[in-house]
Design goal:
It holds the Pfam family DUF218. By secondary structure, the protein is an alpha/beta fold. Helix content is 48%, strand content 17%. The chain is built from six helices and eight strands.
Amino acid sequence: MAYVTRLRGAVAGLAGSGPLYSPDDAPPAPVAIAFGASVRGGRPGSFVEGRLEAALRLYRIGKVQRILVSGNANGLSGDEIEVMTRWLRERGVPDEALLTDGAALDTYLSCVHARDRFGIDRVLLVSQFFHARRAVVLARHLGLDADAVRAEAGCSRRAWVRNLAREYLLSRPKAALDIARNR
């Protein structure tokens, strides 16, 4: 019965998780998490680049002091962490402002690692609108004080449709189960 109650709560939470801020309007936090995604040929894909641009903006305007790049260092498309870290360094972010987590294979693990490995309790989660809301629900479930910051993505309509379908058909149901099971 408790499992069903948690599952219902998770599904309801995934339907709406509070405001989605622009970088300029976001409340301050010590750290922003830029979530990894596909990289190609040593360069960030459009979704990752949008996340990095938003995280960089947060850093430059003083909303955050550090950026945690979180993703898969051994992904099929390449080392997300190396690509993301290099992109930020090339734009002037010093090493002491960068945290890296190359073992976060999904959003849930990104949040767990932020809390348990890096001692983060207040965070801005940077991603596209469809992913950011799910990330906030997972982070708050894990006890993080989290807000979502919207990242843009200059990609094709086909890529948007594919990612939206993945989000609503696969990722959100998985997140609801993660919460219900207290994975």
